[in-house]
Amino acid sequence: MGVVRLGVCVSGVYAAFLLWAIAQERLSAPFTSTSPHPHTSPNHQSKGDKFPSALFLNYAQAVASSLSALCYLLFNAWRMGNLHKSLAEIIGYNQLISTSTSRKASVKDVSQQNGSEKIPNGHSPSTPQGERVTVKPLRKTLPALLFQVSLFQGLAGPIGFLALRHISYPTMVLGKSCKLIPVLLLNVLLYRRKFSPHKYLVVILVTIGISLFMLLAETSKKKKGGNDSAWGLWLLGVNLFIDGLTNSTQDQIFSTYPSLSGQQMMFFMSFFTQLLLLPALIFPIPSNPLSLISHLPLPLSGTIASAPITFAKPEILNSISFIISHPDCLLPILAYALLGGLGQLFIFETIQHFGSLTLVMVTVTRKLFTMLLSVVVFEHTLTKGQWVGVGVVFGGIGVEAAMKRREMIRRTKKDK
């Protein structure tokens, strides 16, 4: 069943995000307006306008993700005969509000002194006998951890886009190909998670293989971009660090709160993401953010010339007016949001049952398998270096599969 589940998760991630990428590419192209532009001649054919707000698209995807998770949880509750439960139980809200304290059974912790119970940590004797109440630090509670990963996820994308302005495309591709390394290291350093020795070998092989495959592609020679600045490389490093924090913290949540399902985590992360994005959508923001810095005291403002602060129209109003005047953008927006939500279902299912390392391995190899499919279907060609990269990646996957098989045989013998 584990192999079948992994196959379904991988297929779901590949299919959903392949179609999602198509919708994303369509949204980056211009849309034709149904209303004529002012100061434009009727005989002049407009090339169209691009969608004005990436923030609105992120918010739409967060809404679609939370709705997808809710639908899945309700369907699963119906399938398991648990629809009699409250909605709070189904979505895991009861776990969210009850995890600031946890009870640990330990009869030794209750001692008798002068005929009365003495409870450690100064807790009241009304605590059930044989149990100790452990109060978790705020940063380790489930709401705080979920809010952290939502914040991390919201920051990673904009920082990645900003980094791409200061580094070349191949450098960004190479950095993203090495995503397995920060995920592994932060799991070990922050949360003291232990991995089998072969996991480190698999991570190294897959990282090297994907890097070779991406960097030695013929298309990468055409996307030279500019020179890599130190600022751009630093931003890329921050982006990878945040990715590692996100995935390792998700692993920690499932390890600490095993009763939380992947779809429940997905629902709350999407909900927190909406809370983070909503103020930026509905409130006007400065047209030029640097104008705020120019009004700070001299050591902070630096050499930036003082400029008047002007506020732009709220993002949500810009987006709605654009949709009204460009109705053909509505279908790509819906496809982008819904396919992203569907893909997230498979992503969180993978994290819950197989961990973030497996998920990242799936996502970083997605382009490789897409390219291999295009070789078979459209008779495209790969360079010799790319074939070497493919061989190294499959070598890493083969090591993982062999170790999994050995572990299954060992468990079967123990059961007998």
Could you walk me through the main structural features you see in this protein, from its secondary elements to its overall organization?
This protein is mostly helical. The protein has one domain. Helix content is 67%, strand content 4%. The chain contains 17 helices and four strands. It has helices spanning 2-27, 54-79, 87-91, 93-98, 142-164, 169-177, 180-191, 197-215, 218-222, 230-256, 262-282, 290-294, 298-301, 315-325, 330-364, 366-378, 384-415; strands spanning 101-105, 111-113, 116-118, 131-135. The protein has a two-stranded antiparallel ribbon. Strands 2-3 form a two-stranded antiparallel ribbon. A hairpin with a 2-residue loop joins strand 2 (111-113) and strand 3. Helix 2 (54-79) packs across helix 15, helix 6 runs antiparallel to helix 8 and helix 8 (197-215) runs antiparallel to helix 17. Mean pLDDT is 78; it is low at 38-45, 101-128 and 220-225.
